[in-house]
Inverse folding.
């Protein structure tokens, strides 16, 4: 076997996955067809639950330090509206501004530092699942074609995934006909920024801040901080190549079609163009071949895809590692499809709803948006929407499970003898953690039977959410003992959870 895992595609998903695998000693080869990293401006930042995971890994500072500017105001676009999360004390939706090329550079450094091999200019053109052990990957490399024998392949090769096609995994859904353009430009001659964010354009008049729907599409502008933000959305049959950046002339023509004016535009600072689809792969797995990121799902609204793809990677990595290292219980790899498809369904729910909000025109559409904004002004709906956007609301666990099961382990201060760490930090090892918050020796002892996979930590907190938490390497709570739960029910349930997630004990 040449390597343990071949990751196809050096976007945020593949790079995150390669780093996660390499950090726990899995021999990982990442193959990327482009000879050089892409400089095309796509996502403008990291948002949602992935920030919590990077924080738990002690890595968030690295991404914060690289951010392009100040924290964005915690107002996020949602279906042609803005949701204002500033009214919440503890918003579930957070973001770090970090243009995608810079994000990919940091993730690539992280993967290589940990021992993954990244080959650029090497395109995957074929796959063969040989037997129960091996997949052969056919690669067109810089020096000609060659095969790679591996135990697993993960297609992180984007929305038009070759790996998905080669594995024959259906990708049903809808492609929407709108093309959206989003740009930031300098202020040109003849345009004055108004205090309310609108523009005064010589020879045209005032253009208000915010969205304007016309019969040809939607236009929005904002003049702030010495730059102008411009957005258009219109129905267009043209198929654009994501690798060909939008020009100022293309944007200007779009503004003219939608708004019917010639808007002067300054120098381009950020130019992006995109279309929307709502699609999801029927399965994220075919034998030893897996899909993650855009290859597995496409969402019809912005700000959520990078988060979803990087969380796919975190979910899959420790399960693949368990299979490579030989301890994964039967069925562990199938939980990847089940868990991440369920999460993507929640993301499809709110992003499809955003399409309806965005596309509804005329007085009825205005009324729908006004009512929606009124409801989103209340704390509970705003919290729920924030959790959906962050990817932390992935539906309720089974009725018998503790309500914390499936949730991300929130960070909180812990008191441990001679130390005062936080929950974040316990997961840096890449192993699972059994966190005993109530001196439950009866429940601590069995976890000691998985010493290579589960760290056991005893601590106290001010208000304990449970007596014991079993936290997976990806930060999700696998099992919890309710406060004062008798050992008679908790002990067999814990043993079951340990073997379901971490296989047979090693002692
Ligand atoms: C204009 C624009 C703006 C966006 N804004 C946001 C945003 O604000 N927030 C957000 O979360 N998302 C945003 N997105 C979406 C986000 O960019 C994608 O969801 C993200 O890049 C997906 O990451 P990925 O790693 O799954 O796939 P990709 O980034 O598509 O990476 C796939 C990689 O696989 C490589 N590849 C393909 N085929 C092969 C092959 N056969 N062999 C080897 N390599 C191959 C490709 O070259 C590519 O590098 C935006 C997208 C666009 C186009």
């Amino acid at each position: 076997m040449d390597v343990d895992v071949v990751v196809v595609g050096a976007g945020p998903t593949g790079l995150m996955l390669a780093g996660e695998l390499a950090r726990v000693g899995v021999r990982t080869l990442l193959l990327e067809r482009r000879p050089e990293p892409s400089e095309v401006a796509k996502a403008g930042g990291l948002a949602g639950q992935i920030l919590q995971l990077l924080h738990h890994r002690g890595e968030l500072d690295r991404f914060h330090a690289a951010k392009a500017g100040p924290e964005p105001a915690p107002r996020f676009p949602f279906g042609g509206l803005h949701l204002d999360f500033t009214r919440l004390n503890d918003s579930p939706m957070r973001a770090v501004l970090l243009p995608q090329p810079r994000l990919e550079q940091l993730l690539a450094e992280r993967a290589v530092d940990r021992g993954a091999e990244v080959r650029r200019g090497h395109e995957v053109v074929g796959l063969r699942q040989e037997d129960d052990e091996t997949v052969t990957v056919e690669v067109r490399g810089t020096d000609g074609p060659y095969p790679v024998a591996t135990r697993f392949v993960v297609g992180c090769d984007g929305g038009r995934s070759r790996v998905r096609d080669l594995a024959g995994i259906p990708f049903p859904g809808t492609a929407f006909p709108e093309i959206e353009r989003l740009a930031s430009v300098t202020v040109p001659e003849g345009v004055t920024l108004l205090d309310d964010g609108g523009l005064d354009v010589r020879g045209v008049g005032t253009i208000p801040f915010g969205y304007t729907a016309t019969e040809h599409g939607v236009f929005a502008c904002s003049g702030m901080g010495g730059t102008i933000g411009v957005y258009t959305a219109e129905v267009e049959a043209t198929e654009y190549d994501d690798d060909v950046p939008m020009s100022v002339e293309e944007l200007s023509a779009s503004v003219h079609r939608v708004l019917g004016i010639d808007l002067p535009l300054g120098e381009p600072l950020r130019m992006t163009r995109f279309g929307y689809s709502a699609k999801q792969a029927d399965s994220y797995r075919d034998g030893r071949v897996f899909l993650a990121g855009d290859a597995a799902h496409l969402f019809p609204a912005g700000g959520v895809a990078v988060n979803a793809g990087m969380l796919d990677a975190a979910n899959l990595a420790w399960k693949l590692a368990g299979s490579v290292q030989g301890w994964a219980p039967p069925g562990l790899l199938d939980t990847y499809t089940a868990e991440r498809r369920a999460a993507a369904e929640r993301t499809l729910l709110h992003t499809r709803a955003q399409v309806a909000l965005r596309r509804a025109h005329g007085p009825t559409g205005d009324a729908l948006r006004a009512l929606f904004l009124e409801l989103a002004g209340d704390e509970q709906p705003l919290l729920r929407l924030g959790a959906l956007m962050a990817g932390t609301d992935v539906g309720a666990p089974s009725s018998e499970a503790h309500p914390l099961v499936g949730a991300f382990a929130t960070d909180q201060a812990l008191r441990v003898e001679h130390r005062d760490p936080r929950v974040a930090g316990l997961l840096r090892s890449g192993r699972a953690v059994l966190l005993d918050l109530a001196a439950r020796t009866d429940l601590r002892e069995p976890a000691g039977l998985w010493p290579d996979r589960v760290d056991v930590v005893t601590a106290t907190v001010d208000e304990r959410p449970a007596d014991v938490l079993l936290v997976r390497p990806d930060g999700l709570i696998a099992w919890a003992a309710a406060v004062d739960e008798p050992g008679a029910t908790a002990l067999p349930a814990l043993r079951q959870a340990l073997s379901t997630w971490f296989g047979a004990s090693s002692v």
Notes: The first strand starts at residue 3 and ends at 8.
